[in-house]
């Protein structure tokens, strides 16, 4: 046993080395990712307060971990967009982390849905839709590629319509489609 001070700096009862060992074991377990560990209440005001704070912290970590894992699984693995972490009562850095996870999931949801809307419109023959959501990095490259593809499809469709009209309605043979900036199969057509 060792002597201890109360929070007010006054002498308090001795600290049981076994209790310190429990606290150390609990801290190591949490450090190693085990959020099932708990410190028991023992009837000593200070030690019970420490146990309560420790147990509350572990509960908060467990909830935060569960929610972040759920959102990552739903959005990242299952393809269910729109998931948000729900961690009630968080403050400080925990709130910042929760908001960052939710912002990331929200941005990804908006970006993927925008891409899906445009590609669905193209599949239905609507070549007027463009991806307008703000993106960066590789998603910006994808956005630009899809928007360029839509522009080229629209130009190609316009030219095919023009040539068909010249041949079919106006009887002018030998019309050529002119689609600037296309390559590969598009140019061959």
From TrEMBL:
PROSITE patterns: HAMP
Single annotated GO MF: kinase activity
SUPFAM superfamilies: Methyl-accepting chemotaxis protein (MCP) signaling domain
Any one Gene Ontology BP term: phosphorelay signal transduction system
One Pfam entry name: HAMP_2
InterPro entries: HAMP_dom (IPR003660)
Gene3D superfamilies, sorted: 1.20.120.1530
Gene Ontology cellular component list: membrane
Domain HAMP span(s) in chain numbering: 19-66, 106-158
Keywords: Kinase, Membrane, Phosphoprotein, Transferase, Transmembrane, Transmembrane helix, Two-component regulatory system
Name assigned to this protein: Hybrid sensor histidine kinase/response regulator
Source organism per UniProt: Amycolatopsis alkalitolerans
């Amino acid at each position: 046993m060792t002597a201890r001070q109360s929070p007010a700096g006054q002498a308090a009862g001795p600290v049981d080395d076994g209790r310190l060992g429990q606290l150390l074991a609990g801290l190591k377990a949490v450090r190693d990712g085990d959020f099932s560990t708990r410190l028991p209440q023992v009837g000593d005001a200070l030690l019970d307060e420490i146990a309560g704070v420790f147990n509350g912290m572990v509960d908060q970590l467990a909830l935060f971990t569960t929610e972040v894992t759920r959102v990552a699984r739903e959005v990242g693995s299952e393809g269910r967009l729109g998931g948000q972490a729900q961690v009630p009562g968080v403050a400080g850095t925990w709130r910042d982390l929760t908001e960052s996870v939710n912002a990331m999931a929200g941005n990804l949801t908006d970006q993927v849905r925008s891409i899906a809307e445009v590609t669905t419109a193209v599949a239905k023959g609507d070549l007027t839709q463009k991806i307008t959501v703000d993106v960066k990095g590789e998603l910006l490259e994808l956005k630009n590629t899809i928007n360029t593809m839509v522009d080229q499809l629209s130009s190609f469709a316009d030219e095919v319509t023009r040539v068909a009209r010249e041949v079919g309605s106006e009887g002018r043979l030998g019309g050529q489609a002119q689609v600037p900036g296309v390559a590969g199969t598009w140019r061959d057509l």
